[in-house]
Task: structure prediction
Amino acid sequence: MLWLLYISDFDLDPHPDDVILAGRRISHLEQADDVAFLSMSAVQGIQVKLRQFEHYCNTVFVLINTDKTLAAIHGPLPDLLPPLVLYSVRLRYMPTATYVGMTLTLVHPDVFLPHYVAKAQSACQAANATLSLTLYTAPLPPPLALQLYRSHVDPHLMAGCEVVLDVRPSALRELEDIQLTYLCHALNVNIS
Result:
């Protein structure tokens, strides 16, 4: 919270290539110490934002870790990637990156596909670990099984749900299958 208060005066000049969402200009996002710049163009839009950010950081004495700073283009990457530079360091382009716990791929139409895959895998592991308790104990009473579900499995299934766009109609199917399997097992219900 202190970091967000510290940089609360940071803003970028409006640019014609800014992303417009529901009539609002979205040029940058901040969460804790993670910053993302958004633009409809790489060189014209993002490089201008990087220069402004560099100037702002110099003014308020903030150091940026350029080794951890990544660049990405949504869609097929061009043969010649436009150079993006921050503090005289050319940024690396990545096809997949994690921002604020959300893994995004920028070279596939379903940008959240890696996030769904990772969350399904971690939810499945948590469900299996929770349900395997019955090997060492008596069967779990349904209220306890539901409590374990809510605390250990469900957080993985709903991680990022407030921002993830379900690009594919089947995107949720694997997550729902894990939920259904766990709850049927926990409640001793057999669905064919």
